[in-house]
Amino acid sequence: MKIEVKRPRDLSERQVLRWTQLQASDPAFDNPFFSPHWAQAIERAQTRPGLDDPGVRVAVIGDGDEADGFFAARTGAFTAMPAGAPMSDYQGVVCRPGLELDPKALVRALGVTRLDFNHMLKSQTAFSPYLRGNELSWICDVGGGYPVYEAATNERSSVLKDTARKRRKAEREVGPLRFTAVSRSSADFNRLIDLKRGQMKSTGQTDIFGAGWTLRLVEELFARRDPAFGGSLFTLHLGDQLAAVHFHLCGGGTVHGWLIAHTPEFERYSPGLMLFQDILRWMDGGPYSRLDLGCGTYRFKRELSNVQQETGHGFVGLPSPAALLRSVAYGVREAAENLPLGRVSALPGKAMRRLDVLRALR
Asked: What is the value of pTM for the model shown?
């Protein structure tokens, strides 16, 4: 398997086009995180004074301009991880159907001894031997039209009916609702960042925007005007007050749910759900037919989605101390998760995820 490794900014126009064509050829890749423009945006965001090369790389599999596949990662001295982690919700090799992948050859080509992955498409069976856990990604497919989606959702769940009831209640008690799609409001964008940072602080999570490059990334994506790849701000106002605000990554036929927040004083009305419903209605008949809510066990994702995509996490390691350390960490995690210790069983897994986030944000 011939592999050439390049920086995203050094890809030729033909290679970017080939990558885009391969992405469009398989519905599993219909997500902006699989776009060549994602890897290039990550490299720009992570480049700063004193760090001209942040280590973002693309493995080009096959013959140059007619490559068979592309894989983006961020490389360090010994390990690699998803390009844009922890902001990236998918990982995989964007490739032609039937391509035989060798994950260990990929690791060697990247110049590391271990590749950590999460949210890897399970349809990429070459990585199956290296999986250590599974997650479902929840997708709302409105390709048949919003009325069809709504009717099918109402048959299995009350989520949309409950949302409609809360919508009427909010308008009675506060004021008229106003939905804005693809908003250019810098004030509402900045309010979203403030709400997210407050949310992370109150729940004890790592402030992802403290790294600097993450904020540069979302600011660049907010400034883009290209519907084929970029960020879109969606807002919901109650009267003159911002009730909910979402910033989603858009590309191909997919809107990917990314950063969501709501004003706490309106929580009883579930404004975030109302905004999701408005986005789904807005998508009807437009260029986007899928709202990908990403992985997670949140109830609203299960109830809104009508399609699921299987992903997994794990690592590919060559014989090395780095691979041994990861194997030991997973061993401790799996042993704890198999013990009837309640919340204590989940602690090693939480610790691993927290450390991975901190590594990625450096």
From this structure: 0.94
